Amino acid sequence: MKYQFQSNPGQFSYKPTLFTDAIKTLITINFIIFLLQTISKSDQLFFTIFGLVPKMVWSEFMLWQPFTYIFFHGDIWHVLINMFVLWMFGIELERMWGKKKFLTFYFVTGIGSGLITMLFGLNSLTPIVGASGAIYGVLMAYGLTYPNRIVYLYGLIPIKSIWFVIGIGTIAFFSSFNNVTQISHLTHLSGMAIGYILLKKPIHLQSLWFAIVKKFLEFKIQKEEKKTSFKYEIEKDLNSILDKINKEGFDSLTEEEEARLYKNSQSLSYGKKKD
Q1: At what angle do helices 132-145 and 99-119 cross, to 10 degrees?
Q2: Cys-Cys with 133: which of 25, 47, 142, 191 at CB 3.0–4.6 Å?
């Protein structure tokens, strides 16, 4: 624990520093956002816009969601447990790494675990919220950095930190096969995996970010091209039917052509945006 020493004449004292800068900032932001959620009573709206909704990230181009979902939590216990673990295990890491490196690690594990979770459910409309991906990354970093440090399970059972991390990783792994639970265990595992890679094999973060953005842009362009091609085919079919009506009258249409006329007209009208 870090101490502050005062050396005024005739005095000598010390006091522990309970919070480091990054930890204090992260905890404050998370609790302020949770307070706003509680006061507004609009959790679903917040989660839809700022949570991680995989399909909306790529279909609506909501690229901020893999970042913002880290700051929103499902209930009071969700935010309390995450912030307690962040405070308990993150302080020593920040003291050793410094504020900038710790925040970089925190956000890379948090955003990265969200992106991995998203890739395994691109069409999912279920919001993912919480800092757990980043928190599990912090736990992995603590276990690797201080493997022999003793932590107390349930405040009673002493266990080395490395075995503690292996234990919760194992629980998360087997829990990921349970599709009934609302907990995203894949996000937890991804956070731990990214944390391990960052510590064992550092990655050039700028290159990684550009690669991710490039993939999203390419996917968006391909999606727009498919929509344009689909619209062209509809218009072509619709024009052929209208030409037949112009030449032979509406009564000349078969039931199948009438159905296509209605369907294509509806498709084009839904595709138009209102001013």
Answers
A1: 120
A2: 191
Do 186 and 116 touch, CB atoms closer than 8 A?
yes
162 lies in the same domain as 42: yes
Nearest to 26 by CA among 115, 144, 110: 110
C-beta atoms surrounding 222 within 10 Å: 10
Residue 123 lies in a domain: yes
**Residue 12 maps to a domain:** no
What does the pLDDT average to over 10-30? 73
Tell me: the pLDDT tens digits for 64-91? Answer: 999 999 999 988 999 999 999 999 999 9
Task: Supply the range of the domain harboring residue 148.
Answer: 20-203
Using the predicted structure, report yes or no on whether residue 28 has a pLDDT greater than 60.
yes
User: What distance in Å separates the CA atoms of residue 196 and residue 132, rounded to the nearest whole number?
Assistant: 15
- Provide the CB-side half-sphere exposure for 161 (13 A, CA): 16
3-state secondary structure the chain: CCEEEECCCCCCEEEECCCCHHHHHHHHHHHHHHHHHHHHCCHHHHHHHHCECHHHHHHCCCCCHHHHHHHCCCCHHHHHHHHHHHHHHHHHHHHHHCHHHHHHHHHHHHHHHHHHHHHCCCCCCCCECCCHHHHHHHHHHHHHHCCCCEEEECCCEEEEHHHHHHHHHHHHHHHCCCCCCCCCHHHHHHHHHHHHHHHHCCCCHHHHHHHHHHHHHHHHHHHHHHHHHHHHHHHHHHHHHHHHHHHHCHHHCCHHHHHHHHHHHHHHHHHCCCC
Is the predicted pLDDT of residue 210 greater than 80, yes or no? no
Q: What's the pLDDT score for residue 65?
A: 92
Has residue 209 been placed in a domain? no
Q: What is the overall mean pLDDT for the chain?
A: 80
